[in-house]
Amino acid sequence: MTAAIVIGVIAVITVFIAISSYNSLINLKEQTNNSWKQIDVQLKRRHDLIPNLVEAVRGAMQFERETLEAVIAARNKAVSVCTGAGPGNVAEIAAAEGALSAALSRFSAIVEAYPELKATGNVAQFQEELTSTENRVGFARQAYNDTATSYNVAQQQFPNVLFAGMAKAAPATLWEISEQADREVPKVNLSFK
User: Which sequence ranges are marked TM in the entry (predicted)?
Assistant: First the structure.
């Protein structure tokens, strides 16, 4: 009789641990997916701003046609890569977004060479909005990496490791900087020349 009670208590505890581990993994998986969607929202905002910025400077930058076309081509490629992509496509999206960042960096450097553009309210507003969006993308990437790391760690911990297969948990890929241009330190010139 006592042995049956002990076995019953052990079975209840085991079921409780299994349910708790399963729910914890599902919770972290959904948090990781949500963090990914936050990146997606910010990237969409970035992609939507770029055509407006390019149109605002197109007339004044006729001689810089290649730069404008490079920005649009990089933006279009990033949009096509991001469409329907998920956390499993992090490396591919990071590469496309890195190429877009590099094209935007060249574009911004050229815009700086046109003082009349800097004085135009629309261009300054679009550039500020783009900078703000870049910061939001950076924060969203950081939040995603934090959540994905928690999810990956939880999958490897005991007893979660026993139930990871049942919860269809797979390691989430972290967002890494793939472009050398993204690793470079921004150059700030405060000389007002």
Answer: 6-28
Overall average pLDDT of the 32-45 stretch: 91
> 139-174 burial by CB neighbour count: b if 16+ within 10 A, else e?
ebbebbbebbeebbebbeeeebeebbeebebeebeb
What single DSSP character describes residue 4? H
Contact between 148 and 10 (Cβ < 8 Å): no
The model's pTM is 0.78
pLDDT tens, position by position, 140-158: 999 999 999 999 999 999 9
Q: What are phi and psi of 32, to 5 degrees?
A: -65, -45
63 burial via Cβ count (<10 Å: 0-12, 13-18, 19+): exposed
Q: Is the dihedral of CA 49, 55, 56, 62 positive or negative?
A: positive
